[in-house]
Every structure is written in structure tokens, then in C-alpha cells.
Amino acid sequence: FYVSLQSAPSPQPEQAMNKPSDQAINIIGSDNESDFTPTHIFFVGASWGSAFYVGVYKALQEKYGWETLSKMKFAGNSSGALFATGLAAQVDWNIMEQTYLTLAKDAVNNGVFQKMTGYHDAAIDVLTNSKNDPNAYQVFNGNLFVGVTSFFDEYHVILSWSSSEDLRNTLHASMHIPYYCSAIKKIKINGEYKRAIDGGCGRYLHRFDDRTLVVSALLGGDIQCVPRLSVMDCFKPKMERYETIKEQGYKAMMQWNGRYR
Fold it and tell me: The whole model's pTM is what?
């Protein structure tokens, strides 16, 4: 897979790609918690399983506070990109929860086929205010990293935008599953406007450095759901399971021992 980072951030993607996937860093013996405080937090795409991320989000806000979180970078694919967006904008966890629940209830009540783009659009409004504020994108430049996939399977991480519309279009692309979502606009990748779809189609996760905390509602995360979510938990919203899955996310983050895979 190919990774393109637009602009020039401090993380080097080549280093992240060459890092063995099974490498573990265990620094829990340190007296200084900042020794294992994440530099980046990456949310893996999980569709409706991202109820798990609501709990993680709440725990992050309680565990670190906005002062420490403001020094981190946030990234994600697909639904994970929405949670990264909320953290980059310092949106309170209660608002993040209501955003998820609104999406889920719309899907349950009105269906999903060819409707998800409209639901995503409403969520992006809440988290970015980018329809009302033409300069909203500036808050996210260099702080938010959004994974997308262009034809055929090239994975790109977008971290800089020139307008609020560009930001919105990138978030839409990261969550775009053809036929499940409706038509979206091209986005700028390496100086060219291209069609892009769900970031998870090109790469499951991305580590920027040795202290990238990967959060996954499924597999492969430093923080992941135990017991494991089923495919059906992710396939459609299960409102009766929401509080349980959310609590699993909260506990997993609060109990994290500083170990990176």
C-alpha cells in the first residue's frame, strides 16, 4: 500500500510502514506517565461498532484533560475519522455521544441504503461547524489526519485543507462505501482531484510513530473491545447493546497499561 501525507508533518510515514506490526513497547515501569502518553491516537473504522469509541472518548477526556489532549494528533479511517475530528476540535464527550446516537437512530428509523451520506453530513456539521464558518478548517490543519483510499488500493492520509468544503469532502470520502452512501465530490490528493472511498479499504490502521495509540473496536488495537464485537454489532446499530459496548470502551481506555503493540 502507498501512503501519502500532504504537507510535511513531523511523523514520517515510511518509518511507520516499516515498523514490524508485532513490535511491542512496554514502558509501564516508568515513574513519568508522559513517557507513554500518546503522540497520536488512531481510530480504526468500525461502522456501528464505534459505540465502543464513545466510551474511549469519554475516558480520554477524563484521563488526560483537554490541556494534554491538545498536544496530541488525532487520526482515523471511516467512522473512526469522526471521533478523531471531535477530539481535534475539543468537542465534549457528551456531544460526541449524542452525535453517534443521532446517526444510529436515523439509521434504525429511516434505513441506511443511499442515506448514510446525509447522516454523515449532519454529524460533520456538529463536529466542525464547517457549513457556517468558512474558516473552520483551520482548526484541523495539522491536528487531524484522515485516511482515504483512491483507486485501486492506494492509501493516503490527508492532514491539510484549503477550505472548509475540502475538509467536509475528505471526511465524506473516508466514510464512503459505494451504494451504501450517495455520490460525493473528488478530493485533492498530491495536487490532483481524485475519487476516494473509505480509508479502511486501503489500510486497516496507520502508526505514525512508536507512541501512536491505535483504538479498535475489533482487532489489532492497543485498545480493543473485550469480549470481541461480532460482525452484526458493526453491521447495524443495536441500541439495546449500546450502553454495554460504550462501557467496554470506557473501561478499556481507563485500564490501559501504557503498552503499545
Answer: 0.87
